[in-house]
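Follow-up to my post from last week.
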Amino acid sequence: MSLAAFQRAYADLAASPRLCLAVRADPVAALASYDLEARERDRLARAVWQRGMDANCTLYRVTRITALNTVMPTTLKRLQPGLRALLDTYWEDHPVHEIRFAHEAARFIAWLETRPDAITEPGDDLIALARGELAVAEARLEGEEA
Amino acid sequence: MAHADPGYDPGRDAPPLGVGIMANLALAPFIAVPGAVDYLAVTPDMSWIDHGPGACDGRRFTDIPSWVAMLEASGLPIVSHHIGLSITSAQPTDAAYVAQMAAWAERWRAHWLSEHLAFVAIAEGHGPSAAGLALTAPFDREVLDLAVERARTVIERTRAPFLIENSPYYVTFDDSDMREAEFLNRFCAECGGGLLLDLHNLYCNAVNYGFSGHRFLDELDLGRVVETHIANGSELGGLYADSHSGAPPEPVWDLLDDLVGRAPNLRGITFEFHDSYLPQLGFDGVGEVIERARRVWQARPETPK
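User reply:
Got it. Predicted complex:
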């Protein structure tokens, strides 16, 4: 289980600059929930000081925003300028990446529906736009160009 | 054939292909020109939809028609370059994924299959989930054993040559059990696989960690190299990243010149670039990269048998 826990913790660090900072401050406490051996914990405690961990965090965000931007680019533009903060919250609520872009987009739409205060324009219009973009993307993937 | 026997050289079964390109849909008009490239490297995961183990009608993988149409129209030799095996992941092997690798390779007569030295599947409750990026594990014996076992499963299931690709890494674990080159050499020796040596990944690591890519070649068993990748990258937070941003930089061409002179079983040179950079590079720019790579290919000292 230890290697699996190490990989899980490493991936969680790549997904969360906040967790990286917590490990910098107190590695034992911040990594206590993972079933790590001392060598593995020490490795991660050193890794969070490497500039490459920042690069990993950036790449994680690129991966996740690519999924949404591929399916619903217009919706994301309409969510500006608060998009960054919105996505930070979404990724904290759903830290596990969904590799199926359409599933990720559907999950994001469902999450948006629970956050009407975060949407600056009429929420119903924006949700309808997002659903429309998702439908087009699904049709394209199925070869039924809409 | 005993592909999984230690010491087996996968290059013996693979024909020399020449210079190819990593396929993407934006390249369809370029690929369609006869003689534009000698083969296609295809990421099969881009050509299907993975509906997950719980797919309602039992069909976990379904085609994306636009990709199928492009591959059918090309008529080119194909090699298969995967991103979903998660070869160093401490999760159970995804048997359905391996079966799909085999089915896809058979359908398109892929000359070999390859995967990155990385993990993307991580523990989530009682099953796996996706990490959101490919991460390189420490070069430890335990990780090597995992990768070798998984590669053997793929080789036995597909009956095709299987290559491991060296990855770019942005975090290092300096107390690893072995060095990267030793890890790659042992992997090949223990599972009977080969190397897909990505020269741009090597260049990234050399730039970021201050070592010589040419010295790294000295440490590798270059007889295991069956395919090589060339690409370009970009700055990322003070590091140099493998972004596939256009024509390869000169140091990568230098590494290619060095490699082809020392890799007797090399069967193909693949140019990788991301389709979002096509407006800057253009089809003419792609063609120039292919032609330069062909000159290197044609100048190699030894033609594979």
